[in-house]
Design a protein that fits this description.
231 residues, alpha+beta
């Protein structure tokens, strides 16, 4: 069962770190780690992730049944939890950012040791953060449910997210892929990455990003992409 047992900290460095420790101690599949605040939360590419206390869902789930489409399923669960009130619409920026009107409301980070049979799924979802709470450099590109949808109880959003995650982790791959493709924020957009640039053409059945370039189509199975400036 996803969400039980649950370990909660008022303050911790990173819920992913706590979940990794629990994995090493033999904690079961579905163990949920949450925190009111993180002092060293992190996102992809080593970026820091911060939020004022009790303004974001900060959670990590220990998984001992690992699916290659885990990041896609997690993003769909975040979208559903955000859209519960029916006043916002979410898209997913490959590989694992959830957007509302092209502003990031949530990020997903999967870490683990497949050879040892476990992975940790970390999710940070901005719930009650005001625009002024974001650093100046993020105010135009980050958002929260409070900004977009009005006030929502943090614990209610967490419960919705855990329930949605449990459902999407059990969903057939064809259903996950189809639902993700409907929310693809990059398809048809010009994107860039470290080694090149092209037009995003959706994802393949493994979840890799397809990009049409001047020299042909390439598949990116990892890394970071960004919207390219108009040429």
């Amino acid at each position: 069962m996803i969400g039980l047992p649950r370990a909660h900290w008022r303050l911790t460095d990173s819920t992913n770190e706590r979940a990794r420790e629990l994995a090493a101690r033999g904690a079961p599949h579905g163990t949920l780690v949450t925190a009111d605040e993180q002092s060293a939360g992190r996102g992809r590419q080593g970026r820091s992730w911060t939020a004022p206390p009790r303004t974001a869902v900060l959670m990590s789930v220990l998984l001992r049944e690992i699916d290659p489409l885990l990041p896609l399923a997690a993003a769909l669960a975040v979208c559903e939890a955000c859209e519960e009130e029916g006043r916002v619409a979410c898209q997913v920026k490959w590989p694992n950012d959830v957007w509302i009107d092209r502003r990031k409301v949530a990020g997903i980070l999967v870490e683990g040791r497949p050879q040892e049979g476990w992975a940790v799924l970390g999710i940070g979802l901005n719930v009650a953060i005001r625009e002024a709470d974001f650093p100046p450099e993020l105010q135009s590109i980050a958002t929260s449910l409070l900004i977009e949808d009005g006030e929502r109880p943090l614990d209610d959003v967490l419960a919705l997210l855990v329930d949605a995650l449990a459902r999407w982790l059990e969903a057939p791959a064809t259903e996950v892929l189809a639902a993700w493709r409907r929310r693809d924020a990059l398809k048809g957009q010009r994107v860039g990455w470290g080694e090149g640039e092209g037009v995003a053409a959706g994802i393949d059945d493994s979840g890799a990003l397809l990009v049409d370039t001047d020299s042909g189509q390439v598949a990116l199975d990892a890394g970071e992409v960004h919207l390219a400036p108009p040429s």
